[in-house]
Amino acid sequence: MKNDEGSLGKNYKNGSIIFEENSIGKEMYIILSGNIKVIKEKGDVETVIATLGEGDFFGEMSLFDNYPRSATVKAEGNVSLLEINQKNFLKKISKDPSLAFRMLEKMSHRIRKTDDKILNYIVEIKNLAEDSQGFV
Amino acid sequence: MPMNNSKENSSIALNDGDKIAVLGGGPSGSFFSIFALKLAKQIGKDIDLTIYEHKSFSNEGPSSCNMCAGVISESLVQLLAIEGICLKSPIVQRAIDSYRFQTISGDVLLHSLNEQRGIATVYRGGGPVSKITSEADENPESEKISFDDFLLDYAEKEGAKIENIRVDDVKLNNEKPQIFSNKSILSDADLVVGACGINTKTAKMFEELGIGYTQPSVIKAFQSEIHIGREKVSTQFGNTIHIFLINQPDVKFAAITPKGSYVTVSMLGKDITKQTVIDFLNYPVVKNKFPDSWNITDTFCRCVPKINVGASRHPFADRIVMIGDASSARLYKDGIGSAYLTAKAAANTAILHGVSCSDFYKNYYPACKKINGDNLFGNLMFAFTDTVNKTPVIREALLNILRNEQKRPELGYRCSTILWDMFTGNELYTDIFLRALHPKLLLRILVNIIGTAFIRLKTIWRY
């Protein structure tokens, strides 16, 4: 398709910030094409905590808990995103609660991944601690 | 026990290995299959689902097309994305962000409040006939552009079997339906899903089954695909659907929808013919939208689909359920959205509750009743639009309100969102109707009508 005429949603160029950590947002996003990076900042250090692609969604946490954004999201390459505002989203869920199934499925998947990462870090730290004890 | 059992009969659950036959591979058939298979997988049920569709949606022209304007509302685009069905080009022919309402008193351009291109225009089949060769080459043959094909592929990925066969009879044998093709039995089924639309003989087959099913009442629409070239579609129509309320005799409303290198002209009214379309295209306010050098061609791809204006009766029985257009559809708008709603309600019922008449009555029929009830308000809203269209003072007053809202956002978009939601099919007619009764809006309309009438009287008095 020429000239992006069939491209739905909003288009972002490589490196564009979609939202920043601690900003207030009432929208969730679904990735129609391309990839985004989820970044956490601590001091001057930026850590990419996830890369999401087509069909994934993000920004949904603020919709449910009304807290500021928990991370910064940047476009990795050209990205098309469909934006859904909080009111529309909650209206849809109240009409058809089964819509939440897929979100719960994805969120459960993310929690499992996070659990695995935490476990790996704990094991690494334990190993490092044991190594350093042996060294002393 | 008769097949069209009373509402009192008990539940019939689908068991592992049970067969579902879906008659029709349009959006309602595909949506049903996708949701039923996903849900069955989630609860660990193994069902054997086959979609019977004799058409190939990849060919050009009406014979491979399920014939509609091919506009997917903003609300449905979002619902599908949440479901994991993301629409993009080349399935999306053009992403729409605005509607232009053209009356004989002037026009107004309304933009999506979400400030994004949220509405999709699609081809249901492989596109119009007589494509210009150079432009047909822009999409490689391997690249499918049919929305119906895209959904069918999605259903297949979820585990549906697709049979390119015309089912020409359904019979009831003891307590199970059987489906036939060319007088030979194809299969017994534990559930038959009528996703056959209203443009086919298949729906008639269900009427003759003796379950009390009656097709919805219909009117004819007229769809024409006019080629003006991709660049000209972009410069003349952009990402805007044009709605015409221009008092053409026997025409309720007309719309021009940009798609690729074509525009789809959709007309709704009484006895619309090819000549009505040509007359419409010759109206100065319509002709102005087309390039100066463009002349109406004598041949263009066209079809006369039927559209629902009423509700079907008894759209279910034991082990049989009708969905999509064959059951209930929203008045004049969002047919694909109605297919989604009825298909999902039927799939949830079949997998989670059961397939008896009583199961469908309790769990599926409310979705149909909601659409049918909402259409009563739709009728009121369209009757009001007709009145506005035919009454110059009200028409001009409303145009003033809409233009003011667009120029001064601080006024809010009360009137604009009503018109937007009504013509985009984005919201239920009931919601729109209730919003239209807001005292502030009614007062604003009244003040503008008095103002417009006063200006008109002053002009008459001067001359």
Please give a structural write-up.
- The complex is a heterodimer of chains A (136) and B (463).
- With 136 residues, chain A is of the alpha+beta class.
- In chain A, 39% of the residues lie in helices and 34% in strands.
- Chain A has helices at 60-65, 86-95, 99-135, and strands at residues 10-12, 17-19, 27-42, 45-52, 57-58, 72-85.
- In chain A, strands 1, 2, 3, 4, 5 and 6 form a 6-stranded antiparallel sheet that branches.
- Chain B has 3 domains: 19-57 and 146-216 and 309-374, FAD/NAD(P)-binding domain, CATH 3.50.50.60; 218-307, 2-Layer Sandwich (Alpha-Beta Plaits); 391-462, no CATH class.
- Chain B has 15 helices and 20 strands.
- Chain B has helices at 27-42, 74-83, 133-136, 147-157, 202-207, 230-236, 274-282, 284-287, 335-353, 357-363, 365-390, 392-407, 414-424, 429-436, 439-462, and strands spanning 19-23, 48-52, 71-72, 92-96, 98-103, 106-111, 119-122, 161-163, 169-173, 176-181, 184-188, 191-194, 218-227, 240-245, 251-259, 262-269, 301-303, 306-308, 316-317, 320-322.
- In chain B, strands 5, 6, 13, 14, 15, 16, 17 and 18 form an 8-stranded mixed sheet that branches. Chain B has a 6-stranded mixed sheet with strand order 8-2-1-12-20-19. Chain B has a 3-stranded antiparallel sheet with strand order 3-7-4.
- In chain B, helix 1 (27-42) packs parallel to helix 4 (147-157), helix 1 (27-42) runs parallel beside helix 9 and helix 9 packs antiparallel against helix 11.
- The model of chain B has no long low-confidence stretch (mean pLDDT 88).
